[in-house]
Amino acid sequence: MTDRAYQICTNCIMDTSDTTLQFDGRGWCQYCCNYHSNIKPNWHPDERGLKEIMPVIEKIKAEGKDREHDCVIGISGGLDSSYVTYVAKEKFGLRPLMFHCDTGWNSDLGVSNIQKMIEGLHLDLVTEVVNWEEMKDLQRAYFLSQVSFADTPQDLALFSAMYNFAANNGFKYVITGGNNSTECVRESLEWTYFSTDMVQVRDIHSKFGTRPLKTFPICDIMKYRIYYRWVKGTQVIKLLDHVPYIKKDAIAELSEKFGWQPYPQKHYESRFTRFYESYWTPKKFGYDKRRAYFSSEILTGQMTRDEALERVSKPELDEETMAHEFEYVATKLGWTVAEFEEIFRGPNKTFRDYRNNLFLITLGARIFNFLGLDNRIFR
To answer: Mind listing the pLDDT tens digit for each residue in 261-290?
Structure first.
């Protein structure tokens, strides 16, 4: 944190806990300005969006007609991945193969929701289980490094396993739950650095890890953006950006049709992420990722600013539950509570304290922004 005077956006709830965030003369933050200037004018979750995506849908069907499955979708049990699965199968008639990466942190509710979607839609599922000892070693390394984004190992595994599987099995189309409706506010690098920066991952692991990552799924950003896209021909389709996607309506629809159950908060299908976002980052690093999630919903008209302020005024989990989760995570990672508390009290660091590939990744992100392939602000 810095000595900068506190300021909160007058339009959403992003504030100077994102320490480099800038505001205009109205008090609007960069995210709000970008949404109205770049995202909203180019986003069409209506008949126009449907018309735009239909040629892609027909191409997927045509190219996959001789295959058992014409596309692949990663599913976590969360709302975005569950709803896009439903839309792809029932509303567009696609034949997806479902892919799940088990990092060792699945919640019971997440597993249950996956099963309900698979059975309810009569889909096939492939599950890749990450070697737990390697996952644990990399997660321990990230905690010991004192960077805020301790969820990087899990994000890296989920991302890499999905795209490696698609490319290695000849899938040209990967449908994701990524969307503007609930994710138009892209967290800053200060909050969430690139999980696919393998320069940084390897540096941190070399300093704090104790075992080689022999089978851990790895796909760096260059492999994903260049080799898989332009050599292997893998395309990523954000289907939810072309149809109406309102969070409360999607929850109601999935609950009614499949018995799907909602989570208290985005990404809570992972027990690790629930701990990381509800305890570790707010208490150790002073920022609450719910500000980005709720600000996205404010901008897309799904939540009022007052409702969002009320939600972030109190923790998502009560103190007793958080204490229990602290002990659970510590024990699962091989530490005593006292050892984990010592790490918690250690000096905070940022991605700049370790080797990184920020220049090239930034250049790639700027190019994608310029080409209109990603209209979210990058900062």
So the answer is: 987 766 567 889 999 999 999 999 999 999
C-alpha span between 12 and 23 (Å, rounded): 12
Question: What's the predicted TM-score (pTM) here?
Answer: 0.93
Distance CA 7, CA 291 (A): 13
Domains (range + CATH), the chain: 45-370 (3.40.50.620)
Of 1-5, 130-134, 228-232, 278-282, give the lowest mean pLDDT range: 1-5
Single-letter amino acid, residue 308: A
CB contact at 8 A, 132 and 159: no
Kindly report the length of the chain. 379
Q: Does residue 1 surpass a pLDDT of 70? A: no
Q: Which two tokens stand for residue 221?
A: 């950003």
